[in-house]
UniProtKB/TrEMBL annotation:
SUPFAM superfamilies: UDP-Glycosyltransferase/glycogen phosphorylase. The keyword DNA-binding does not apply. Keywords: Transferase. GO terms for molecular function: glycosyltransferase activity. Coiled coil: none annotated. This is Glycosyltransferase involved in cell wall bisynthesis.
Length: 411
């Protein structure tokens, strides 16, 4: 069997997205291992900038109609095509059962997008693969049912914790296999469907790109966070913690990232009288993230569980900061303790606790040897346990096995 027979169709919520470098790295790694990919994006890109790694990915991209009424003729042509497929009624019954439990316009849109994908995806596809367990996996599942193809899922964070249990259970049973990026996710998904094939596959980190540089020169402590300004990141807790730091400490805070709460956070800093110590740089590329981390002394990730249940899994940028040799402080929540061992390679604090967070920051600010020790051990942890290449090899092995299986069936 040649790789030309191994066309993997990858379903994505949006492509490219500046915040999903981990997906771009995985796509590139699969191409480098000889797989031919075809990308299906449920949305057009909205970010003003893109990562350099996206320019190295060769796979073509099919953009589905984000809203069905925007391209009615395209959807009608896809419907006519799908109704001639032998599995049409089986797929329709599956969708109608889902619709009875989720009678929403979004559920209708997912099926319509699947119809378009089935008509317009390559004829030589052998496998469908969805990044995120919610909407992309729904579209991929309906498309897989129509095309008679196997599909698999890569599950992450919000898509797991904000999806209803019935939907997760059915997708786990329908998927040939699922990979996910934290042990906590594996335990949760196995708790729903014990017999499901669910594998832990950390996103990993490029330890060559995120490597320690020369020690920073300059006065004062530079505290950094890279995160979207959304509730689950707990940035309002961090702002309150910074305002509690003793007056004799010399520090500055640098934030990288966009998001809907940015103005509210800036206003909070003004209200607490620390706006002169805070710098808000907005959305940047991964290369700029690495350069900025090289100018920091301390990295903070104050994650929390949002009101809608959304929460971080294991934030990639936390791993990147550790790979840079930065001491880190994270919340004792979700999968963050899978990377941070308290007092060994970082510090953990309870979520929603600005006092505990302020004390951890002060402790590290006053103890340079502790910062160096935690940073060095964090870097060693990344090299030992979070190699991205090992994870890519395991994912490629799954797809290679799938390709042989499909080739033998075709023969």
């Amino acid at each position: 069997m040649t790789r030309a027979k191994e066309r993997i169709v990858v379903f994505l919520k949006g492509y490219p997205r500046i915040s999903e470098t981990f997906i771009a790295r995985e796509l590139l790694a699969l191409e480098e291992r000889g797989f031919e990919l075809f990308l299906v994006s449920l949305r057009h890109p909205t970010d003003a900038i893109r990562q350099d790694i996206n320019d190295r990915i060769r796979a073509p991209v099919l953009y589905l109609p984000e809203y069905l009424h925007q391209e009615p003729m395209r959807v009608m042509r896809a419907l006519g095509h799908a109704m001639r497929i032998p599995s049409w009624w089986r797929a329709t019954r599956l969708w109608l059962r889902d619709l009875s439990r989720d009678p929403s316009r979004n559920r209708v849109r997912r099926f319509g997008q699947a119809l378009v994908a089935v008509r317009e995806m390559p004829a030589d596809a052998i496998w469908l693969y969805a990044h995120f367990m919610h909407t992309p996996a729904s579209v991929a599942r309906y498309a897989a049912e129509l095309r008679g193809l196997p599909f698999s899922i890569s599950a992450h964070a919000r898509d797991i914790w904000t999806s209803p249990a019935w939907e997760k259970e059915e997708k786990l049973r329908a998927a040939r296999w699922t990979v996910t990026c934290t042990r906590g996710n594996v335990e949760h998904l196995h708790g729903l469907v014990p017999e499901a094939d669910v594998e832990l596959l950390y996103h990993g980190v490029d330890t060559s790109r995120f490597a320690p540089g020369e020690p920073r020169s300059g006065e004062g402590l530079v505290i950094m966070t890279v995160a979207r300004c959304v509730p689950k990141k707990g940035l309002d807790v961090l702002i309150r913690a910074l305002a509690l730091l003793p007056k004799d400490l010399d520090w500055h805070y640098v934030h990288l990232g966009g998001g809907p709460l940015r103005q509210a956070l800036e206003a909070q800093a003004i209200g607490l009288g620390i706006e002169q110590r805070c710098v808000w740089r907005g959305t940047v590329t991964q290369l700029e993230v690495a350069a900025s981390l090289g100018q920091a002394d301390l990295f903070i990730m104050p994650s929390r569980v949002a009101d809608d249940g959304d929460q971080d899994g294991l934030p990639n940028v936390l791993l990147e900061a550790m790979s840079m040799g930065l001491p880190v402080v994270g919340s004792r929540i979700s999968a963050i303790p899978e990377a941070i061992a308290e007092g060994r390679n970082g510090l953990l604090v309870p979520p929603e606790d600005p006092v505990a967070l302020a004390l951890a920051i002060e402790r590290l600010a006053r103890d340079a040897p502790l910062r160096r020790r935690l940073g060095a051990e964090g870097r060693a942890t990344m090299q030992r346990l979070f190699s991205d290449e090992a994870g890519y090899d395991r994912l490629a092995a799954r797809f290679a096995s799938a390709g042989w299986t499909m080739a033998s069936l075709a023969a």
